[in-house]
Amino acid sequence: MAGWLALPLSVSSECSPDQLVLVGVGPGDPELLTVAAVRALEAADVVAHPIAHEGAEGMALAIAFRWIRPDQRCLPLLFPMVNESQPRITAWRQAADVLAAEVKSGNRVVLLCEGDVSLFATGSYVQLALRRHHPDVPFRLIPGIPSVCAAAAAAVEGSLDVPLAFQQEGLLIRPCPETNAELIALLQSARKTSTVLGLIKLGQRWSWVRAALEQEELLDRALFAQRVGWPDQWVAAAHAVPDDVRPYFSLLLIRQQWPEVLP
Hints:
This protein is an alpha/beta fold. The chain has helices spanning 35-43, 59-64, 85-104, 122-133, 147-155, 180-192, 206-215, and strands at 20-24, 46-51, 73-78, 109-113, 140-142, 170-175, 195-200, 222-226, 234-237, 250-254. It contains seven helices and ten strands. The protein folds into two domains: 17-145, 3-Layer(aba) Sandwich (Cobalt-precorrin-4 Transmethylase, domain 1), CATH 3.40.1010.10; 148-254, Tetrapyrrole methylase, C-terminal domain (Methyltransferase, Cobalt-precorrin-4 Transmethylase, Domain 2, 2-Layer Sandwich). The radius of gyration is 20 Å and the shape is elongated. The strands form two sheets. The chain has a five-stranded parallel sheet, with helices on both faces. Strands 6-7-10-8-9 form a five-stranded mixed sheet, with helices on both faces.
């Protein structure tokens, strides 16, 4: 089928799909785990979770920690944050190998993923590595709440209303562009197509992104959110965020128009 990656089909296996579950744990608040995610955690013998370097705890584990019992074994999987492709490919395949071995040993395993398991997620690469290299190991996915959805909900606490999409509007979730020109072009295209933007991975770009929003007269139509769901969460109108802020784990929601028919 067009658009599908050609991967081997799973063959019959004595393993159950419930033995390996890739779980989205949401953006930060343990209360935002779904009932299905908590049930999968409760049933697990092994809780696998990503780390960026040896000795790190990992954000996904921190989010889910409330729901993990002392008798469950935590299994860190190293996913280096590098630009080179080969270390990342190696990490994905090694993670798939480790998870498959755990399942074939009779363990019930979950792999924790921040946010949603299919949206800009390390788990998606592991999913494809499992399908390609271990087609005899079935698994299932449990979706999680994406940070853009959590940000729109959190904004209401500050009397800021940013519904992500109405009726025929579009919603585009993507990493923040790398250059001013790319951002301006994206803003103009979104305006023409009535598309709300959810720009993740804002990070160190904020100073020039803020200037671009001001140039396009959008500072009062954009929502800034940092570390959504964590105790130090910061959600504010973009015009209230100074340009010297160096945000971490941050995003923007940009709504340029509103429908003509509203309550």
